[in-house]
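Name: Vacuolar sorting protein
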Amino acid sequence: MTQDTKFASEAGQQSLFYHGQAKDFVNLHEQVETSVNLLDSLESFLSTFQKDLSSVSGQISELQERSKDIDNRLKSRRRIEKPLSSLLSDIAIPPSLAITILDTDVGEPWIATITDFERRLDLLKVRSRVKAARDLGDVAEGLRIVAATKLRSFFLALLQPVRTSVTTNMQVMQTSIFVKYRSLYAFLQRQAPNVAGEVQKAYTGTARTYYETGFRRYVRSLGWIKARTPEKLEPIISGNGDKDGPYLDQDRLAYAKIDGPSVILAYMADDKTHEEPIEAILRSLLLVLMDNATAEYAFIAAFFRSESFAPPPAMETNNALFSPTATLLSPDFGFDDRRSNAGSEIVTHVSRPFGGNGHGSRDVTARPGLMDKAERAPLDAIWKQILDPVLEYCKTFVAIVLEPMPPAVPLLTMIRLTEAVITEVQKRDCLPLENFLFTMRLQLWPAFQKIMSEHCDTLRKLAEGGTTSYFNRAASTTDASVVNICNRYVVMFNSFVILTHQEEETMIFSNLLRLRQELTKLIARHTENINDDVAKATKQSAMYEVLLQGLNVGWTHLITHPKSQKEIAYWAEKEEEARRRIVSIAQSRRIGKR
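Structure predicted for Vacuolar sorting protein:
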């Protein structure tokens, strides 16, 4: 019983405990239901979220694809960005360029502008398949026409001062203006050849008149001076001459070189007492011709040559075809009438354009010698059109110089001068002038040969005892006349040696050999009538001594020249033979007296 009671008691206590906890259990139950409901809601939310996440994942994939597509398109755009930018930059005509061509006068800013414009013109032609380039073609063509029109007026206006006055310094205009705007004329050559041809013809006509007028006046002035100093050929047997006898005039021989005395200025013709030897007159003409003709050719080659368009990497406005210090064209050139009388065309001043002695080095961008024949032909034609009247004046003046025929030494001096000028012209690459001077030299050499033949003939006739010579001189000889002939021969020989730098020159020394042979015969003939053998040999020895004294002058070039040494040896041998005859005859006579 006790156990049952104990068990019932424990059961009652448990029942009371659970009844006491019933509310908590109800609350717990409610919380469990609430949690279950929350879990159901969470499950539903997670299910929905999973569906949304799948949708977002699909959208992200789509965005990634779009992003890749956009990135590829961006790379493609970047690849064509520079070419497209270059295309637009090339074919577009900046407003500043158009304004410069349309609204401003030609000047220094045009140099860079026209270079840029021509580059764009060429690119428009290359890009002709591009519609934008075709659309701009009409605009560019209009600007080209305007530029060509303005440049034509500009270049023709530059020639106006030369047309109105021959005293305008043309070389200054060439170096400081024409060469400066060379690129503008090159634009006309390539983009408007008809306009370039018109400018070229205008320049050619203006320069032709300029040089023709200046040289006409200068040649006339030289003609006046020559008329005051007539000098004609006298035979070697002539007794006329200076009071002191024939002598070697080294001052006149100096005219055979380019270096030396200043040229004759045209205003000197005003002084009616001013005289110059014929060599100085011809030298002045040739040096003035050389400097002006070669300078003009150099300018023509630099300015009128044709060249393809090749713009420099950096546009430069300084076109230095001629450096400021170059001596190609001097600003001192001109036909100056400052010293002339009113209305006179005789006293025009022509100065040499190269400054100093006229052979400084020239810095020319386009050397004619480096051009081929086809490239030089049109330049030569322009030069000939300009200088033809000048060459005719010079040709006529040379004919005047040879009439009457000058003496042999002055003529050889002029020949050597011509050869020196030819050498200098060859250095300056002026082939047309070189050809003209070659022709002139060929004209002088036959005249020299004729003079030497006349000297030989007159000496031969005198030695043969003819009644009269070529120059109508008496054939009789005296000691004084033979000594005078010997002195004239010595002066001629020494002059020829001074003027000859080569050891062998047939034209010179073959004629001197002929003269020597005739002179030897003349001395023998002059003394043959002397009956006393000792007196005859003494007279011959005296004549040979005169020759030896003249040949043994103290000039180094004469002493060292092989021909001088041979000449001295020849006459020394003759003199020694005469002395031996004197000694031999004297000994024979002493033996005979014994």
